[in-house]
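Complex record, two chains
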Amino acid sequence: MLLSRRNGRAIVCTGVLLCCALLASVAEPEKRLTVYTQQSGYSVPVMDRGGQSYIGIMELIQPLGATKAVVNGKQWKTRINQAEFQFTEGEEKALIRGNNIDLGGKVLVEDGRALVPLGSSFAILSSLFNKLVEYHPTARRIFVNNAATRFTAELKKGDRTSLLLAFSQPVNPEVVQEGNRIKLLFRREPVVSSLASQTLADASIQSLNFAEDNGTALITVTTSSPMSVSMSADGRSVTIQPPGTQGSGPATASTTPGAATSIPATPEAPAVAAPSTLANPGVSTDEPKPTHQGPEFFVMIDPSHGGDDPGATLGHQLVEKDITLAVARRLKAELQERGIAARLTRDGDINVSTELRAETANALHAGAYIALHAGPPSAGVRIYTPILAAGAPPAAGDFVPWDAAQSTYLNQSAALAQAVMEELDKKAVPTAKLKAALRPLNSIAAPAIAVELGPDPTSADGIASHTFQANVAAGLALGIAHVKAQTGPRL
Amino acid sequence: MIPRHLQITSMLLLLCVLISGTFIISLTHREKARTQPQGEESPLTPPVEGKPELIPLLIAYDDDHAMRWRNAQAVLPQDSSLRAKQILRTLLIQYLQTPSPHPLAKGSDIKEVYLINNSTAVIDTTAQFADGHPSGILLEELTLASLIETLSANMPGIVRVKFLVNGKERETLAGHADLTSFYESSAVHELAKEYE
């Protein structure tokens, strides 16, 4: 009887332990916000307070160089370089560089630790650094000053098709092969992609998917049969190819096809220069185009003005910077609905110089650039192409003057303007096509246009109306999609 | 003890000093106002010497986004730089009138026009010209195209034009039109044709 009671206790204890182990294994990992800079990356825990996600503000900004906060009653003050940052416990606004920033919720203080809503992290970092900050809210990843690592995918067809992934920075992913799926998991690298899914139109290597969550990024390649994965020695390219073709590619650290395996792909072999699939400003494109352009194509949408620069005044409490941002967000959504990736040069009320807008578009190799403006004197939409003398493509390796980077793209810009105008005409939006010496159009190394929405003099609200903005955004997206369909992955 | 009559005399003298001081100050102000050079907000006036000439002006009309050639009479000096300056001021007079086809801010004026080899013109405008200019791509383009085309039509050797604001380079006119680059007259001519 005693023995059976002991046995019973042992069974109960074992059961409880097993349940705990099971719960622990299925429990969600701790939510974190990951911040990437060009020097490093770090993450801060995300906490739930009253149904809203919060983060510790000093944990967010101290690794970026913020001084220790000076607390005076409920008021907190800190500084990064020359930027002063003030916030007050219980308040929903903060003061950065003298500008009021809406935090989207109250500042909480717990055990001497200040918490701010997670959603405000983008506005705080953008305003503090005055640099481009990219925020991926669902994955809780923030990239400061172009810190993201991008990649291109090139499908090389032949006797044995292979897929070459070329990264802008060295990477060291964990490679997992599950049947006919190869997964590259990036735990530390700031790998991003503009598209979530890409069909590769090949029998052996069928598709490429990208996902990111809680500080990690995952590239999944679906193949028809098990493949081997190898990395170049410099860590900048990954080749996926049928087994037994190692000699022809950048070799090594390959996974064994078959059972699921997980190994870090350690580079060993000499690097092989990956053929560039990126738009290279000023370089002749006479070389044969690769059979597939990867997920790098995206449209850079530039909502003009922002921050201290309101742009044109369009009516009572209606300024250009707000209209351009609203239309930019609509256009991004319209493009994404059509399978075209898009980015914004600013996604908040922040200062971004025209030079930085052009630098960002060129550095990220945008496939097209759309500057959005709004201004008098009349209603409708005016589409502008750059006023610049057409230039011959310079020889490979030659520098192109910054103010003439657009000169070899003028025909594509004109074609884009025409397509957009036709689509807007179909939507009965009055349009005009003109030329303008508008910054920074001449410095954009991609097809580039500027779109100016005109306020209706008889109705101040016309330009802010949902219908008008939705019509314009849809027309622009259709025009871009039309040109892209005609000319291929790059406009 | 000061005698009473001395006290009264002193008070009267002090009063006289105060009255005459106030009078002198008011006279100084009046004279200053009379002799002060006309401010930048004053209306533009043509020069008083020389023979009147008929000059073509390309005038912008905001209502229909158009530019049209109109003739105006102006007295132009012989010196090329002064001549260019006077041509542009004559154009600005059209925009500063009420009603205006293309309103510009009060005080908009041309401070100087510098000619380099009679082919490149650097136009220095007043701060009010840029600070008070209505913001908008089209409005800013119309202003610059109107100035450049008018200058080129009256001084055909000018092939490049650059704008300064109050002697300094500025990024844009009012948030849009580029002021950092040199404008090629031929390119602006093509642009202006779209509006004519």
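Note: The helical segments of chain B are 4-35, 80-96, 127-131, 137-154, 185-195.
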